[in-house]
Specification:
The complex is a heterotrimer of chains A (380), B (267) and C (368). Chain A contains 11 helices and 10 strands. Chain A is of the alpha+beta class and 380 residues long. The chains are: A alpha+beta (380), B alpha/beta (267), C alpha/beta (368). Strand 9 of chain B pairs antiparallel with strand 13 of chain C.
């Protein structure tokens, strides 16, 4: 296994780090505090090609690889978990399924606008009664002539308030179970489509999380994504890729907390000494860094396997499971090292701790990741 | 039409500056960055490219690792790069440096509608001399302290040149040399697609052999031998002590502080 | 041009100072340079000569004599009215090649720093930028090193007969100093940082005795490749905190009279040529808008001078300002943490101390 990044990957990491430091970090506190979607940052990222990193230039992408994309989400999340998930959901959950399962026409119609950031993308699978059990879809799609009619609602949809394009799942055959689910590309202004209430969340507060409502929503037949009845497979494959994005977000959050904790403990004086001089601090930081480093290896390995088109479903599940739990643990420990200051909003570690929690929940809870891993191991 | 941009890689002096015990700069311990004024010069050139489609050529003089910086400039949008690098060029002061860079620009080829962009000054020397001296060696008009490029068309250039107490609007004809202030614009970032392309873009190395036929390149006009100025002594000022707690808080105290600060040229 | 400098160095005599005028008004730096040039000329035992270019500027020349110029060369032409690189460079280089001074000093203004390098390149000589100290006499130079360097002078060898101009300048924000010489070419050129050299007392008798000479030169419109379209005097734009050279910040200590505290900070900032900032407390209280905040959650600044007024110096504030070059703190509490990172600390009531500081700083600046 090659542990050395290519020159291009090193340059891209430097770009993401500089961008995060200069453009994202200064807004992070305010974005969290006011629960504001950072539109201006999204616009800037679009200009730099950060919204279509691993897609071919032909479709408006930057022509880089999956690992470069993972590093982008990682670097953004080091300073702002909200910004990290915006890129992750857009790229992994909307651009990727269109790129991997779309027809040439669909790709040419949607990808250039998505990669250029003219359009933001989102993904609609979760329903009030279909969370971890995604097969329990209640949204229906009925073919009527040259179009489908969709009815139902989706919840907890990341980017929904600002997205123009949604990859939405619905039952085309309610008697066929998983095989009755199909995927559709739905545009925001299709008749009968609307975005509902905005969720108030514990963390990643600037990301737009809303309900989607489809009431006799008209979707042209040519916007069926993949084959009829293959929607569940598309959803699962999409989530495999998405997990690399969320694992990268978790990785960044944890690493960001370690960076903050190192800087703070070198400054903070108690009992006449910098608290970094106490062995407890040193051991804590050593453990925290080691956990994040281990997470990084898992995340990068999954990204490289996806890039190489070898099976990576279990790798992505392990990466997300480990990185999310590591991030939750490390951010919580960072708050502890900061003491009372860590509990205040003066410092970013409490925000990182709140942001990290969701990485154990969305795009498959940690329990789901364990199911995926166990199943891949043949443990029944 | 071409924009030729002269760029220098410098140690980042914005943070802590490391000095060796012998009074020289510990360059190894500091990150190498693109000189900030030069970065704005490139941005000005790239804006000209955005408006006119002109070619942007970046040129730097430095050791071979400076190629990394040139690749970054290509990733920002420059079209090709020239690295001027040779043992013979080492130890050059501003005079000798400008001789070599002027010869490099001659080699790149200066046409009637070209514009040479430089940064006003580099943060490791702060001399602001190389730009004007390149202009002199190439017999070109110069506009220094450029705070804004107002117009480049039909062989005419109009720039806003900053003064301490205002500004001048200056017009000149191409080809010319402009030295740019970092405040004039906000340099763009590299783009991801630019990064993917930058290793495929042309990069030439000009060494002594490449430039030696230019009349500007003589054994007594380049390198240490060709430098009119020499460093006589270099030293560190006395260490900044732990702070001084002023005695009292009356008029005499304030007068004393003002005296100390004035004596040290701080005010 | 090389032929000009292949001539014998001993042919070059005299110290010259470029006297910059804008719109017919001499720059304050001119007097500083004439005063400094006087000392150098005395050390060398040569004449000090001012070089004044412009249109109808002869009337300004005598004043330069009052600060020590033996002679002022006045070059007048409508083409020299406003500064342009080409016209000034041509006239100056022609006169220098004709008369061969050994030292040529220029104020390091935006104009001086445009002119100096161009002239040096044409004359094939060295130029040292932004000098803060000049010596000819070796003993004086050694004394300067004793005071201003950490060099162990017992290990340093000096040629006591050395008559080169030793030009000292700061590099890397003053972390390093370098003394530069130009041993093989003349004139030895230096741009000198404004405000550094001390102005001599004006002497009317010397002014009266000053000789005015008008050297012959040729200058035509064809020599001028740049055209000044307009010159605009601008009031200084408000600079942001991060770019500011001087930041005067206020903290909770102004709570007794917020309005007055802020006004005092502004007044002090004006005297020092800087801007006003504040601690988190002042922003949270709504006394200053958020863009003023210095610290962990505000802006990180590293100005030349940072003045902390009534700021206790919490760790999150220090994180944003401790790399400033010179930190001055005024606080009532003797154990305020801000004093730990201050270069100069005054324990006292800012409402009493600041007005006195303003007065004394003004006086110190005026006295230079």
């Amino acid at each position: 296994m090659d542990f050395v990044l290519s020159k291009e990957q090193q340059m891209a990491r430097a770009l993401f780090r500089e961008f995060a430091e200069n453009e994202v970090k200064p807004l992070a506190e305010e974005v969290d505090e006011t629960e504001r979607f950072p539109e201006e940052t999204v616009e800037k990222m679009a200009k730099l090609g950060m919204l279509g990193i691993y897609f071919p230039k032909k479709y408006g992408g930057a022509g880089a690889d999956v690992l470069t994309y993972a590093m982008c989400v990682e670097e953004l999340s080091k300073v702002c978990g909200t910004t990290g998930v915006i890129v992750s959901a857009h790229t992994s959950l909307c651009c990727a399924p269109i790129y991997e399962h779309g027809t040439e026409e669909q790709k040419m119609k949607y990808l250039p606008k998505l990669c250029s950031g003219e359009w933001i993308g989102a993904f609609g699978l979760t329903e009030p009664n279909a969370g971890t059990d995604a097969s329990g879809q209640q949204t229906t799609a009925v073919l009527e002539g040259d179009h489908y009619v969709l009815n139902g609602s989706k919840i907890f949809i990341t980017n929904a308030g600002y997205a123009q394009v949604f990859v939405v799942f619905a039952m085309t055959d309610s008697c066929a179970g998983n095989h009755g689910i199909s995927a559709f590309i739905v545009e925001r202004d299709f008749p009968g489509f609307s975005v509902g209430k905005h969720e108030k969340k514990m963390g990643i507060k600037g990301s737009s999380t809303c309900e989607l409502i489809m009431e006799d929503c008209i979707v042209p037949k040519e916007n069926l994504l993949g084959q009829v009845g293959k929607g569940f497979k598309i959803a699962m494959q999409t989530l495999d890729g998405g997990r690399i994005g969320i694992a990268s977000q978790a990785l960044g959050l944890g690493e960001g907390a370690v960076d903050e904790a190192i800087a703070y403990t070198k400054e903070r004086v108690q009992f006449g000494r910098r608290i970094s001089q106490f062995q407890n601090t040193q051991f804590q930081l050593a453990d925290m860094h080691t956990r994040m480093q281990a997470a990084q290896f898992l995340v990068y390995s999954a990204a490289m396997k996806k890039e190489a088109h070898v099976p990576y479903s279990m790798d992505a599940a392990m990466a997300k499971l480990f990185a999310a739990e590591a991030a939750s643990d490390v951010t919580r420990r960072a708050v502890q090292l900061f003491g009372g200051y860590g509990y205040t909003r003066e410092y970013p570690v409490e925000r990182m701790m709140r942001d990290a929690k969701i990485t154990e929940i969305y795009e498959g809870t940690s329990e789901v990741q364990r199911m995926v891993i166990a199943s891949a191991l043949g443990v029944k | 039409m071409k924009a030729i941009v002269c760029v220098k890689q410098v140690p980042d002096t914005s943070g802590k500056v490391a000095v060796n015990p012998d009074g020289t700069l510990n360059r190894a311990s500091m990150a190498a960055i693109i000189n900030p004024d030069d970065k704005s010069a490139l941005e000005a050139a790239l804006q000209l490219k955005d408006n006119t489609g002109c070619e942007v050529v970046v040129v730097t003089m430095g050791p071979p690792p400076a190629e990394g910086m040139l690749r970054e400039l290509l990733a920002m949008g420059a079209d090709r790069a020239v690295l001027v690098s040779a043992r013979e060029f080492g130890g050059s002061d501003t005079y000798a440096t400008s001789q070599i860079l002027a010869a490099a620009i001659n080699k790149i080829g200066l046409e009637s509608d070209d514009v040479v962009f430089c940064g006003r000054q580099a943060i490791d020397g702060d001399t602001a001399q190389v730009g004007p001296q390149i202009a002199e060696k190439l017999h070109l008009p110069q506009i220094t302290y450029v705070a804004g490029v107002e117009k480049v068309e039909a062989g005419k250039v109009v720039c806003r040149r900053e003064l301490e107490d205002g500004y001048m609007m200056i017009e000149t004809a191409t080809p010319c040399v402009l030295t740019c202030l970092k405040e004039m614009n906000e340099a763009r970032y590299m783009s991801v697609s630019g990064i993917m392309e930058c290793y495929a873009k042309p990069m030439e190395v000009f060494n002594y052999e490449t430039l030696k036929d230019d009349p500007l390149i003589q054994i007594d006009t380049i390198g240490l031998k060709g430098s009119p100025t020499n460093i006589f002594k270099s030293f560190t000022p006395p260490q900044k002590g732990v702070g001084m707690m002023m005695e009292g808080a009356d008029k005499a105290t304030c007068a004393k502080l003002a005296g100390i600060l004035a004596g040290k040229h701080i005010i | 041009m090389a032929t000009f400098n292949n001539t014998n160095l001993a042919d070059f005599k005299g110290v010259w100072v470029f006297c910059e005028q804008r719109a017919g008004v001499l720059m304050p730096t001119d007097f500083e340079l004439i005063s400094e040039g006087r000392k150098l000329a005395d050390e060398l035992g040569v004449e000090l000569c001012g070089l004044l270019l412009g249109d109808n500027v002869e009337g300004l020349a005598k004043e330069l004599g009052g600060y020590g110029a033996d002679k002022v060369l006045v070059c007048e032409s409508p083409l020299l009215k406003d500064y342009t690189t080409d016209a000034y460079t041509k006239v100056i280089c022609d006169v220098i090649m004709e008369q061969k001074p050994e030292i040529f000093l220029i104020g390091a203004s935006n104009i001086g720093r445009d002119l100096g390098p161009r002239c040096a390149a044409r004359l094939h000589t060295g130029l040292t930028a932004d000098c803060t100290h000049l010596d000819v006499d070796v003993n004086k130079y050694i004394n300067f090193l004793k005071e201003s360097s950490t060099l162990d002078l017992s290990t340093q060898k000096f040629d006591m007969e050395d008559r080169n101009l030793k030009m000292t300048r700061p590099a890397f924000g003053g972390h390093l100093m370098a003394t530069i010489i130009c041993p093989r070419f003349r004139p030895c050129m230096s741009t000198v940082r404004p405000g550094v050299m001390k102005k001599a007392e004006f002497d009317q008798a010397k002014a009266d005795a000053c000789q005015i000479v008008k050297p012959a030169f040729t200058l035509t419109e064809d020599d001028c490749k740049t055209k000044v379209l307009e010159i605009v005097k601008a009031t200084k734009e408000l600079v942001d905190l991060t770019g500011a050279e001087v930041v005067v910040s206020v903290g909770r200590g102004i709570s007794k009279d917020v309005e007055k505290g802020i006004a005092l900070a502004h007044e002090l900032a004006d005297v020092l040529g800087g801007v006003v900032g504040g601690s988190r407390a002042t922003v949270d209280a709504g006394w200053l808008s958020a863009d003023h905040q210095v610290g962990q959650t505000g802006k990180t600044v590293h100005p030349r001078i940072y003045v902390a007024l009534g700021i206790s110096g919490a760790i999150q504030h220090k994180a944003g300002m401790q790399d400033s070059e010179c930190i001055i703190a005024v606080n009532k509490a003797c154990n305020a943490p801000i004093f730990e990172c201050a270069d100069y600390a005054i324990e006292g009531d800012l409402f009493k101390v600041v007005p006195m500081l303003i007065e004394e700083f003004k006086a110190a600046k005026a006295g230079k």
